[in-house]
Amino acid sequence: MKKLLNTAAAFLALTAISTTASAAIITDTYSDPGGLVYLSLAPGAIHQDYSFTHDITDGINGFRPGVDTINSATLTLDAFDDNSTLNGTPEDTIGGPETFKEFFRLELDSNFIQVFEVDFSAIAVSVTTSLLDDGLLNVYLKVVRPQGETGVSDFIFRSSTLSADVTRGDGAIPAPFTALLFASLLPLALLRRFSLHNKKLN
């Protein structure tokens, strides 16, 4: 009887832990497998635009659509002009030193966000949480030359990081807790089966 009570207490404790909502920061960083990506409006350029997808559902601790809630999210784009510096070294070997401004258009899940000027620092953008209901975010970059600007607009894309502030859903039992709960319930099932067997024999 004492063993039964101890097992039941363990079950209740694990259940209470697993159903408590908790906060988490989930990040996903993307960079092109080939390294730096050069985008340019110059004739014959390989890339005038570039797209990729962030996925924060990946892994054991990933976002769970329909269970977790995203409170806020930020997209940080690491892009720089080709006459800015990279790790203290002039990065002017791809397009050459320039004096005019560089711009790109940003779209998230086909929604136009803004035209940004490429500067010497990363660009942080707040992401509408509704765009992350499925844990995926499609990012689209396109080189543009706003009216009144001169020269061939070009820039270099290095990486992108999506960071989401998430509240874990109540009642959802992560995989490690599921295994522990199963282990705690097994003695209960065996004990009951043993008791029923003894009653039949008596």
Give me the secondary-structure topology.
Elements: H1 2-18, E1 23-30, E2 37-40, E3 49-55, E4 69-80, E5 85-86, E6 89-90, E7 103-108, E8 111-117, E9 123-126, E10 136-144, E11 154-167, H2 175-201
Helix pairs in contact: 1-2
Number of strands: 11
Radius of gyration, whole Å:
27 Å
Total count of helical runs of at least 4 residues: 2
Q: Note poorly predicted spans.
A: 1-19, 84-97
Mean pLDDT: 76
CATH topology of the largest domain: Jelly Rolls
Structural class: alpha+beta
CATH class category of the largest domain:
Mainly Beta
Basic shape? elongated
* Largest sheet, strands/sense/barrel: 5 strands, antiparallel
Quaternary structure of the protein: single chain
Please provide the ordered H/E string of secondary-structure elements: HEEEEEEEEEEEH
> What is the count of structural domains?
2
| Helical proportion, percent range | 10-25%
Which range does the strand content fall in?
Answer: 35-45%
Description:
- The protein has 202 residues and is α+β, with helices and mostly antiparallel strands.
- The chain folds into two domains: 1-19 and 173-202; 21-172, Jelly Rolls.
- The protein is built from two helices and eleven strands, in the order αβββββββββββα.
- The strands form three sheets. Strands 1, 2, 4, 9 and 11 form a five-stranded antiparallel β-sheet that branches.
- The two termini are 19 Å apart.
Brief rundown of the structure:
By secondary structure, the protein is an alpha+beta fold.
Essential attributes:
202 residues, 2 helices, disordered N terminus, 2 domains, Jelly Rolls, 22% helix, 37% strand
